[in-house]
Structure formats: structure tokens, C-alpha cells
Amino acid sequence: MKRRANGEGSIFKRKNGRWEAQVSVTHVDGKSKRVCVSGKTCEAVKAKLKILLEQEAKGVPYSGKDWTIAEYFDYWLQEVQAGKIRESTMSTYKRMLKTHIKPTLGHHKLKSLSVSNVRCAMGELKRRGSSGAVLQKYLIMLTACLNCAMREEIIGRNVAQLVEKPDYTPKETAIWSAKQAMHFIKAIKDHPQFIAFLLLLSYGMRRGEVLGLRWRDIDFDGGWIHVRQQINRIDGVMMACELKTKNSKRKLPLSPIVRAALLAHARNAGTALMSSGTSFAPQLELSTEGTVVVSVAGTPLEPRNLARCFHRLTEKAGLPRIKLHALRHTTATILKDLSVDVKDVQLILGHANSSTTLNIYQHGTTESQCTAISSIERCLLPA
Fold first, then answer.
1. Chain segment 315-334, per-residue pLDDT in tens
2. I want to staple 45 with a disulfide (CB 3.0 to 4.6 A). Which of 39, 73, 322, 356 is the partner?
3. Which CATH architecture does the domain made up of 178-368 adopt?
4. What is the pLDDT, as a whole number, of residue 276?
5. pTM score, two decimals?
6. Which pLDDT band holds residue 246 (cuts at 50, 70, 90)?
7. Cα–Cα distance for residue pair 87/89, rounded to 1 Å
8. Which of 173, 175, 149 minimizes the C-alpha distance to 161?
9. Which strands, in side-by-side order, build the sheet including 19-26?
């Protein structure tokens, strides 16, 4: 065999019949080290050696650990993402990893993952009935993890970025009109959870924010509601969590109607407020104690139970079935129809920017469209 030049590595056959190649490459710690690859045939070893030399030529450091996708995802969640993302997001990532990514790609080697592997995995998920939304989240999460592997110089390219994104058009969110929302509020005024739905519709608060609202977060004297935390079920445990974004932490004007409803709710629940009429206390840490909305047992209400309650009350009131989160969309749209400035609506809802408010939460309505057409007619065909 022709002697290989310096830096090309060496190939030889072991006594046991297997072939081996050795070459000096740059490790992730910046030091040059000798590494070995082996295989059943000389051709197989040459192919592995070629990959090492190509990565060295591109300046991609060698990682000693031969990660599988499953192993690297576990590392990415536990060591890279932990502390950076919210508990609810971490729970979602873990669920996606367990139910979708590991079963389809977990056994593949990180360094040898191909575009074809990812495309075939997504095709398999689609055949199993996964929706376009799930496939899109799958690809987004895979892309983020592989980007991290690129930054750590374990792989040279992100194959997930080369896969065509799945077709997915979100369904238009069904909402209520102002009249339907008013009918609902009147129909449930004597229900124990009336205050939860009044807060949802009056302020467009998120479900977790309403469930996480404590008496200490309400400044009756100053006239403010402070949104400071949310309550969610994370990995089977009810817990108080940080809000979705920094803009979610906000204070909302305490309207006279909501103020009266809150005081009535406190009396009915036997909640003792301070003599001044307030239990408000600023800058307290997250907790599940003293929440306004509680279960029959006096504990924070289960998020799913609030949704179930909403659907029962909706049916009893004879209204169209919508998602509980659609109440937030309903409030945003009512505010739009009342000509409230979009910036004010953004601050009320706690969105990061007004484009989210405009493009996702505010919807066109039949009434507003009729009013618009009538305005055009009055302009074009004055009486």
C-alpha cells in the first residue's frame, strides 16, 4: 500500500481482521489529538477517515462523543435550555421529545443525520395522523437543537433547515360577538366561578393568569390589578410560574364593576380582607396561596376544570362552542370595534408587540364590516 502523506492519516489491518485508521485532528478543546476509526473493510474505514479529514479542512473540531439524537436532545434540554425557558415550555419540549422525536429519530447518530432521515421521520408521523401543527413544532424544535450542535461545532450543518416546512394554515379562531359575551356574563352571574370568566372577558387575561391572581395582587385602594404570575399544571404538579413574557407582567385598572364583583366574591368565599378593604402586598414571590379563583376544596383551580366548566356553561347559555382561550380573542376584537388604540390593547393583553395583537388576536366581525360598508355608501351616495 502506498505510504500516505503527513496529515492524511494511516490505515492498517489488525490481527483480528478488522481495519483501522488513525489521524490527528483538532478537538473541541482546541488541542490536536490522535483519533482512531475502525471497520470491517478497508473501504469503510477510508470513508470514515475521509469525513474526519473533510471536517478538519473545514475547521470543524472533532467531538470525541458519538452522540445519538436522543442523547444529544437530553443534553440540550437538561444542560442548555434549563433555566432559559419557562417550565411550561420545558414540559412541552419533553413531551414532544418523548412522543415524536425519540421514536422516529432517536436512534440516529447526530453526526450522520441526513435530510432524508428527517424527511422520512416526518412522513412517518404524518401517516400516523400527526397534524400540520405538530409537524411544524417538530421541525422547529429539531432545528433549534441542531443549531446548538453547530454552535458547539459537533456538526457542520443543520439538516433540519434543509427540509421543506410542512403545509400548515392555522384555523381561524371562532369568537363571540359583544352581544354574545354580554349574554354569557348575564347567564352565569350566580355561578361560583363567575369572577374567573368576568376577569377573562373584561381584561382578556390568559387562563393561567386568572388562576394565578391572588388577593394580595389586587390594590383596592389604588384601583389596580397586578398580573404577576400564572398557575399551570407542569409534569403533573400544579405550580405558580413566571408569566409568558416580560410584557405579561402588568397592572390593569380596577373597574367599578370588577371591583364590586371581587368584593362580593370575597364575601361569598369567606375571604377576610384587610380593614382598608385590601390585602394588597407588592413584590411577593410566586405562590399558590391566597388565589382568587379556587376549587370547592379551596385549592387553586385545575386549568382543565375551568375549561370544562366554561363549556358546560356555554351549552347551558345556548351559545356557540368556542375555546376558552378564544375569550381573549373576543376581548381584543371588542376593544378594536370600540376604536381602542391598538397600543393600549397590546398593553392590556400583555403582548410583546402590537403586531401580535393586530394579526392574531383581533378579528374582523360581521357587525364591523357592515358598519364599514354603510360608511362607504354614505360617502358615495349621500342622502
1. 999 999 999 999 999 999 99
2. 39
3. Orthogonal Bundle (1.10)
4. 47
5. 0.73
6. confident
7. 5
8. 149
9. 10-13, 19-26, 32-39
Closest CA to 123 of 163, 162, 96, 156: 163
Q: Which CATH architecture has domain 69-162?
A: Orthogonal Bundle (1.10)
Distance CA 82, CA 271 (A): 38
Question: Using one digit for the tens of pLDDT, what is the confidence trace for 38-87?
Answer: 888 999 888 888 888 887 887 766 666 789 999 999 999 998 998 888 88
The residue ranges of every structural domain in the chain are 10-58, 69-162, 178-368
The predicted structure's pLDDT at residue 322: 97
Q: No. of H helices and E strands in the chain? A: 15, 8
Q: Around 300, how many Cα atoms within 13 Å sit in the side-chain half-sphere?
A: 25
For residues 230 and 205, is the Cβ–Cβ distance under 8 A? Answer: no
3-state secondary structure of 154: coil
CA separation (Å) from 262 to 149, 249, 267, 278, 343? 51, 21, 9, 11, 27
Q: In 235-363, where do the E strands start and end? A: 237-241, 250-253
* Cβ–Cβ under 8 Å, residues 52 and 44: no
